[in-house]
Recover the amino acids of this structure.
């Protein structure tokens, strides 16, 4: 197993009290596998990723429990210097907003090249040549000329390609991509997603793809983990989820995705809002919004029930949900 997150807990101190942003999250990613983590904003999916990457640097946030086993080592037990080495070469992250992740005053080729100078001890001359190769690899036209340009001289889609190039530069075993295409137009989204999926296969990387958009993951993910209020509420192979969700929240997300074959049909959006994480509802956290909720749901917090050998659902009434 490449990455195993076990019972991870993250809390934030806020003026309203302690926000339980991540509440016992466990998941696994194998080499060459793509796990999509799906949820609305505020579900804890980005915070989970930041804790795994070791970049949870907001002062009030802290990991209060769990393990992050990467290539056999618990990253949470490593010193920051060792952690940084893992971050440089073992795992890389792609963010939504390339413009704020890239340095605006350094040509993109130098930002790419620097990785080879710092981590591989290359000369600048060789590193710049590698930068051109990489830009070519992520299909940036006229890479040899554009290598000297600055981030603002690229379109949003091209900047995301540069982010992808930086992420794969050192051939990491794992990439975590947090809403990598959310800021882009739909057609550009698909191109960037295809590129990411292609590189992931080529390098046999593990990929954790964080998104609020179920439409993005259908073609690329092997498994989906759905998060709600800091927990995974359903985890299953992507095919199973599309066939029949085993959790009412997953069903709500599925029904919110516009379908090309059902034009004009009104989109079902899940009623209500995700809970304030300082006051997570008792019982099943989803009960105030759930169309299937009943008495038991308000008092008894469901654990992740085994629906099949490869599937779990944190719903007391998962059978009913499966039957539609
Ligand atoms: Fe809905 Fe109850 Fe299932 Fe929670 S446990 S998702 S409230 S039916
Ligand atoms: Mg986020």
């Amino acid at each position: 197993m490449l990455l195993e997150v076990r019972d991870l807990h993250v809390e934030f101190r806020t003026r309203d009290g302690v926000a339980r942003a991540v509440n016992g999250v466990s998941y696994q990613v194998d080499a060459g596998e793509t796990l999509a983590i799906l949820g609305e904003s505020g579900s804890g999916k980005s915070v989970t990723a930041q804790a795994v990457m070791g970049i949870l640097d907001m002062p009030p946030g802290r990991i209060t429990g769990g393990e992050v086993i990467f290539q056999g080592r618990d990253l949470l037990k490593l010193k920051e210097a060792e952690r940084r080495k893992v971050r440089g070469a073992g795992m890389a992250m792609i963010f939504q907003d390339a413009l704020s992740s890239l340095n605006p005053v350094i040509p993109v080729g130098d930002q790419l090249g620097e990785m080879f100078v710092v981590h591989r001890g290359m000369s600048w001359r060789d590193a710049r040549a590698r930068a051109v190769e990489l830009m070519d690899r992520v299909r940036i036209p006229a890479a040899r000329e554009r290598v000297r340009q600055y981030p603002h001289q690229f379109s949003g889609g091209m900047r995301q390609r540069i982010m992808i190039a930086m992420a794969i530069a050192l051939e990491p075993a794992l990439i975590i991509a947090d809403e990598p295409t959310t800021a882009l137009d739909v057609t550009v989204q698909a191109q960037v997603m295809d590129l990411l999926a292609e590189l992931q296969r080529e390098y046999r990387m593990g990929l954790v793809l964080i998104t609020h958009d179920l439409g993005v993951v259908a073609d690329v993910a092997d498994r989906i983990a759905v998060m709600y209020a800091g927990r995974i509420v359903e985890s299953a192979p992507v095919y199973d989820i599309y066939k029949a969700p085993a959790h009412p929240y997953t069903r709500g997300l599925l029904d919110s995705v516009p379908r090309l074959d059902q034009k004009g049909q009104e989109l079902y959006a899940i009623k209500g809002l995700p809970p304030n994480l300082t006051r997570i509802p008792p019982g099943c956290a989803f009960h105030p919004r759930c169309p299937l909720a009943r008495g038991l749901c308000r008092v008894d917090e469901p654990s992740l029930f085994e629906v099949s050998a490869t599937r779990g659902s944190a719903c007391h009434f998962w059978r009913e949900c499966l039957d539609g």
